[in-house]
Amino acid sequence: MEQQKKEMIFHENGIYYGQNVISKNMIIADRKQLLNGNSFILGVSGGGKSFAAKGEVINISATSDNHINAMDMNKDYSDGANPVILKSEFIMSLCEQLIGGTNLGAKQKSIIDRCTASVYRSYQQNDYQGHIPTLQDFRAELLQQDEPEAIAFWKAVAPDGKEPPIEKVIAMIALNVNNRMYN
């Protein structure tokens, strides 16, 4: 009879994952320390899957050390479609939400398309290497536009001029250019 291995996983800053059925030891793991940190949760309705998943959520906020770049893109991003068009559509959707769900006009969409293409140009020309554009880059490009509609659009996004909603979004999805997601 082969003896079964009794492993103990007990990481100091880990999350409780359950109990080893052989050793009866608690499993306390920090998935970042594991060789493969992937997981999935199975269970019946009402079995506590959502409760268990809440411990897995990464804290992302303006004051958190975790940030996501919503404009991140690589060679395989678009699955055959034009990735800049997809990002432009994302930015249009974001801006519509920031100005209260109002549909953008043709001129505003044109400005967004042009600014999006501009901020990705050198990144794409360098074979998706180097500085990955951020919403901060997009905002800077938008503010460099000569058309009065660009400034009017920015004023719609930032009506008080002090701390516009897009600034909050930018702070939440700022980027450490060495990583796509970091802690």
Short description:
It contains 6 helices and 4 strands; from the N terminus they run E-E-H-E-H-H-H-H-H-E.
In terms of quaternary structure, the protein is single chain
The counted number of beta strands is 4
The amount of helix comes to 25-40%
SSE succession: EEHEHHHHHE
Note poorly predicted spans: 170-183
The span between the termini is 45 Å
Radius of gyration: 22 Å
Shape: elongated
Structural class: mainly alpha
Question: Can you walk through the features of this model?
Answer:
By secondary structure, the chain is mostly helical. The chain contains six helices and four strands. The protein has helices spanning 49-54, 83-98, 106-125, 135-143, 148-157, 165-172, and strands at residues 15-19, 26-29, 67-68, 181-182. The strands form two sheets. Strands 1-2 form a two-stranded antiparallel sheet. Strands 3-4 form a two-stranded antiparallel ribbon. A hairpin with a 6-residue loop joins strand 1 (15-19) and strand 2 (26-29). The longest helix is centred in the middle third of the chain and has 20 residues, at 106-125.
